[in-house]
Amino acid sequence: MNYQLLDEGVLRDALVGQVAGLDVVAVTGSTNADLLAAARAGAPDRTVLVAERQDRGRGRLDRTWLSPPGVGLTFSVLLRPTGVPSARLGWLPLLAGLSVVRAIRELGTGVQVALKWPNDVLLGPDEGKCAGILAEADPGAEGGPAVVIGIGLNVDTPVAELPQGATSLHAEGPRVERGELLIGLLRRLLADESEWRAAGGDPDAGGLREAYRRACATLGREVRVSLPDGSALLARTCALDADGRLVLRERSGATRAVAAGDVVHVRAPDTL
Prior knowledge:
- With about 270 residues, this protein is of the alpha+beta class.
- Helices cover about 25% and strands about 30% of the residues.
- It has helices spanning about 10-15, 30-40, 90-105, 180-200, 210-215, and strands spanning about 20-30, 45-55, 70-80, 115, 120-125, 130-140, 145-155, 220-225, 230-240, 245-250, 255-260, 260-265.
- A seven-stranded mixed beta sheet has the order 1-2-3-7-6-5-4, with helices on both faces. Strands 11-10-9-8-12 form a five-stranded antiparallel beta sheet, with no helix packed on it.
- Helix 3 packs across helix 5 (about 210-215).
């Protein structure tokens, strides 16, 4: 497939003063792995790496995220949120998901976009997944603690090449130029993160928790949650707590908060 490599110079010019450095590579194993290695070597806050293709990409829960060249966006951002307590860093993946939703809305295409907790981006009336986000931290990195946010977004991926349950911007109707979208995504993510950082990571001081709640399609719904210990439960979501955990009300009436798990929105009667 022929495609045009994203223009590194255009991206750098558009983001001058907002990023410390930005590189575009044709192929790599994982942009997150590369930036984590760079962080350990002292790479500065707000370093960005973009890849046209990655062949060893990882999603949440150790899933594979492969990105065919020329049809999507695959990039990672290195952040060093000084002044934010480590207990608040768990908000960064949620913030990143919200930033992607906001950036897509700012395109003005009118496509329906929402979040599935914690940070899957859903498009269209069928709520197909169009983006995944993986945050990885290295508290001992050279130059201070570092968090790398990796984002994979289906932009022009044809319907026939999408896995089951996935979608792309093109599949939902809008045609968007990838470079323009990437600039908008990075501007929005860095602005949102700056506001959160200035608030010391407090999700309520800057309105992050409320904004996330409004964008999240998971809250108030019946869900099936597969937990890290292998168990599963059916429950209704009722809140998002101060640490970004999903609060569930089980059928027994008991409530519990989960920090990690694979969530499925239940559309029909379900049983465990």
